[in-house]
Each structure stands twice: as C-alpha cells, then as structure tokens.
Amino acid sequence: MIKDNLAIVHQTIEKACENTGRNKEEVTLIAVSKTKPVSMLMEAYACGCRDFGENKVQELTAKYEVMPKDIRWHMIGHLQTNKVKYIVDKVCFIHSVDSLKLAQEISAQAVKKQVNVSILIEVNIAQEETKFGVKSADAEELIREAALLPGISIKGLMTIAPYVEDADENRQYFKQLKQLAVDISNKNIDNVSMNVLSMGMTGDYMTAIEEGASCVRVGTGIFGERQYLVK
Ligand SMILES: *Cc1c(COP(=O)(O)O)cnc(C)c1O
C-alpha cells in the first residue's frame, strides 16, 4: 500500500513539475510519519524515502534511535524551547521557527553540541488565528535578528496553508510565500538564503509545487489517515 501510494505521490510531483517547467530534482518529498509505527516508516524507507517529518520531539527521537542513520529528520511541528536540546543534533531541518526566543535556544544548543542547524521561518501566511507562525510583515525582522546567531543557518520559509477542499484556494498563499522569499532574498542579508520553500501537504502539494515549493510534506497521501487517541 505504501509502495503504491508513494508511486502516486512521485507521479504527481513529476506532473506538477512538468506543468511548470521545473526539474523534479528540485522538489524534496518529506514523508510525514507522525503517529505511524516504525514498521510503516521502514516500508517507506525500503521504497527509497530518506526524508521523514515528525511534529513531536519525543516521537522523533524515539524513531531516530531505532531507524537507519542515513535518514534526514525534519522537525515540522511547533517546538517548545525546553525541548530543543533533544533534537538539535538529530534533525537536518527545523521547519517551524517562529520566534526569536526559539531561534536563540536552537542557537545556544547548537553551539553547545557543536553542530550547525538549518532552520526555516514559519509564516502564518493566511493569518489564521489557530496557526503558529509569524505574520508576513514580521518575517524580515525575525530573520535579521536570527541571522546574527551562531550555530544556525536560515535557509528559507515554511507555511501550513489552510485546510481546504479545493487546493486552488491555497494557490494565492503559496504565491505570497514565494514572493516573500524573493523579497527577503533580494535584501542580501548575511547568513540568510531563501532557497527552501516548505509548503504543500496531501491536499495541495501539486499546487504548491506549481507555485515554487522545494519541499512538500505529505503524510496521509503516503501512510493513510491518522488515528488519534481521544484522551
Ligand atoms: C501532519 C502535517 C503534515 C502532513 O499532513 P497531510 O495532510 O497528512 O499530508 C504536513 N505538515 C505539517 C506541519 C504537519 O503537521
């Protein structure tokens, strides 16, 4: 099942790239494996997946311990500062940096562990009240301040678009995030590159790629629906 799902996702990525004259090598598929058991992740691994996304520190570290070491782990969920220390030397990207306080803690822990952590700034592009992320208007200021910190490299922007039935409704937001990245890139801020655009999930990754996504985060489309225990 995972194998078939992955084939479909890869075809969709190719199609979106074809539609817009992009090279499919420009797009990284992150398999979002939150709530799923290691056996399913290993199935995806066997099909060639090397980028996995998790949104909880404890789950990421538990899976990190038991899975092959050539996996690139992406922290995609809201991150509390007191948990940064558990993951700085295990992740290849933290997608969800939305405050200077968090950037400072990642920097401090990175320096302590002598690693460099690539981070993305999470932007709440649709200004949804329920979502984390900085406002577009505040992104540059956060980036300018975070860029001065040792141990971290700002590589781009991330957004979680609204949940919609018709992916086309999110096209405007993907365009806006892309434009924001271009605008910030044009400011030539030291220690900042805007090459990574993490946007697009199961419902809208094709649209996101058409609008310039370099990372898509696909969970349900690969692993099936998630079941959350009611507490
Ligand atoms: C869960 C999650 C995804 C994947 O969502 P699907 O709709 O299952 O593809 C992507 N990004 C973030 C930040 C998530 O938390």
List keywords for this structure.
231 residues, TIM Barrel, eight-stranded parallel sheet, 8 strands, binds pyridoxal-5'-phosphate
User: Cofactors and ligands present?
Assistant: pyridoxal-5'-phosphate
The CATH class turns out to be: Alpha Beta
Overall number of structural domains: 1
- Principal-axes geometry comes out as globular
Average pLDDT taken over every residue = 97
Q: What share of residues is helical?
A: 25-40%
Rg, nearest Å = 17 Å
The CATH superfamily is Alanine racemase
Total helical elements: 8
Fill in the CATH topology.
Answer: TIM Barrel
Oligomerization status of the protein chains:
single chain
The CATH level-2 architecture is identified as Alpha-Beta Barrel
Low-confidence runs of at least 5 consecutive residues: none
Tell me the number of strands. 8
Could you say which structural class the secondary elements and strand pairing correspond to?
alpha/beta
Main sheet properties = 8 strands, parallel
Element-by-element helix/strand order: HEHEHEEHEHEHEHEH
Topology:
Layout: H1 2-19, E1 28-32, H2 38-46, E2 51-54, H3 57-66, E3 72-75, E4 91-97, H4 100-113, E5 117-122, H5 136-146, E6 152-158, H6 171-185, E7 192-198, H7 205-210, E8 215-218, H8 220-223
Parallel strand pairs: 1-2, 1-8, 2-3, 3-4, 4-5, 5-6, 6-7
The protein binds pyridoxal-5'-phosphate (PLP).
The site of pyridoxal-5'-phosphate has 14 residues, from strand 8 and helix 8.
